[in-house]
Amino acid sequence: MARTKADFGATLESAKARSVGQLLLRAARLWNEQAVRRLRATNPSVRPAHTLLLPHIDLEGTNATELAARIGVSKQAVGELVDDLEAQGLLERVPDPRDRRAKLVRFTAKGRKGLLAGLAVLMEKEAEVAARLGERQMESLGRTLRLLVEILETSEE
User: Fold this and answer.
1) pTM for this one?
2) CATH number for the domain including 133?
3) Which of 18, 51, 128, 139 has its CA 20 to 30 A from that of 122?
4) Rounded to an integer, what distance in angstroms lies between the CA atom of residue 36 and that of residue 34?
C-alpha cells in the first residue's frame, strides 16, 4: 500500500508540474500573498480575502449577488467582507438605480485611493518580475495572458 501511495504522490506531482492551469493558480496565489504582505505594511487591516473581492467591484457598483457569483462564494460571505471593508471606509452600499429594493456595493473616495495604492503595489511587483524575466519575456507573458483571458471570457462552458 505504501508503494501505491508513493506512486500516486509522484504521479500527482508530475501532473501538477505539467499543468499550465495549476501553474497559473500557483503563480496567482504567490503574487497575491506577496502583494498582501506589502499592502499590510501600510494598511495592516488588509486581508487576502479582501483582494479576492475588490477586483470584482465595478466602479459604478455591483450587487452582492453578482459579487458572490464572480468570486464563487456565498452572498453571506460577500456580505461579511463588504461589512468589514465598509467599516474601514473603503466601500459603501447605495441604492441600485435599476432596482430600488437592491443595493450596490461601490468604492468610496478612500476606497478608490486605496485601489490605486493596491495597483501601484502590483505594478511594483510586476517591475521586479520583469527585471528578472527580461522585458521581452514580460511583454510576451502579458500578451499571452490577455489572449488567454479573452479566450476564457468568450468560451462556452
Assistant:
1) 0.79
2) 1.10.10.10
3) 18
4) 5
* Length of the chain counted residue by residue: 157
CA separation for the pair 143, 145 (Å, rounded): 6
Distance CA 81, CA 47 (A): 10
Helix (H, G, I), strand (E, B) or coil at 46: coil
Domain membership of residue 132 (yes or no) is yes
Predicted local confidence at residue 2, as pLDDT: 53
pLDDT of residue 103: 93
Does residue 130 form part of some domain? yes
How many independent structural domains does the chain possess? 1
Q: Which residues span the domain enclosing 146?
A: 19-154
Are the C-beta atoms of 87 and 80 separated by less than 8 Å? no
Q: Using one digit for the tens of pLDDT, what is the confidence trace for 84-121?
A: 999 999 999 999 998 888 899 999 999 999 999 999 99
